Amino acid sequence: MTVPMRIAVFLLLLANLLLFVWTQGYLGGSTNPDARRVEEQLLPERLRIVARDEPPPPAEKQTVPAAAAAPAPVATRPPAESCQRWNDLAGTDADQIEQLLGERFAAFKATRRTLGEITGYWVFIPPLASREEANKKTAELQELGVREYFIVPSSGSSPLAISLGTYRNEEAARTRLEALRAKGVRSARVGARKSKSALSTLDIRGPATQAEALRQAIVALLPKAAAEDCQTAGEATP
Predict the structure, then answer these.
(1) How many CA within 13 A on the CB side of residue 66?
(2) Does any domain span residue 174?
(3) CATH of the domain at 169
(4) Which domain holds residue 139?
(5) For residue 86, how many other CB atoms are within 10 A of its CB?
(6) 3 sits in which H/E element
(7) Does residue 190 lie in a domain region?
(8) Could you read off the pLDDT of 35-83 as tens digits, one per residue?
(9) SS3 breakdown of the chain: % helix, strand, coil, rounded to 5?
């Protein structure tokens, strides 16, 4: 073999050797891209192929356990209510009971009605704010030709009202009212007159759990007073 031929064979062997060394990475690089990806994987032994060319199955819908659901609201009943009716009370007695409620039984509410015997009717102008207003109104009456009137004293049942006449029956009172209106008196009206011995009735409503304690407290305050149930009395308080 000639020298040039030997040199060519040597160079060919050297080139093959260098190519082998380079492909094995001994020279710091590799032409195999898959080999580099394998080197860059983190924990490749834990990878798992779930599907090929198919979308992954949908995740199962999570359901909230029945125990974790919000509890249904519990319906609550309103507390039971009592109603006591105290009849035939003098005005001062009714005042004492109302004061007792305010001081010791604030949960109870009282409805007061005053009853009295009608003794007649009167034509009147409702109570005015002051004596000066009453005097001004009487001056207007005189200008309209009204001479019969009377200013109720401040201590009366209708203080500073102006009485224009009292009558035994309602028909006579209304006849007087029409005559006054014909003269131009517009603020007059007809009302019933009741006896001074008017009595009051108290309907007291509140929690049934305290009803007996209230009844005993009222009896201790007014030994002659007696109560009845508002429903059995045949009339409910509105």
Answers:
(1) 0
(2) yes
(3) 3.30.70
(4) 118-194
(5) 22
(6) helix 3-23
(7) yes
(8) 555 555 555 566 566 656 666 566 555 555 555 556 666 666 777 999 9
(9) 40, 20, 40
Please give the tally of structural domains in the chain. 1
- Angle among Cα 112, 118, 122 to the nearest 5 degrees reads 105
Neighbouring-strand partners of residue 206: 82
Say whether 178 sits in a helix, a strand or coil: helix
**Six token digits for residue 10:** 């040597």
Which tokens sit at 160?
């500073």
pLDDT of residue 90: 86
Flag whether 203 is in a domain.
no
* pLDDT tens by residue, 140-199: 999 999 999 999 988 777 889 999 999 999 999 999 999 999 999 999 999 988 776 678
Distance CA 224, CA 77 (A): 36
Classify 105 as helix, strand or coil.
coil
Q: Does residue 131 belong to any structural domain of this protein?
A: yes
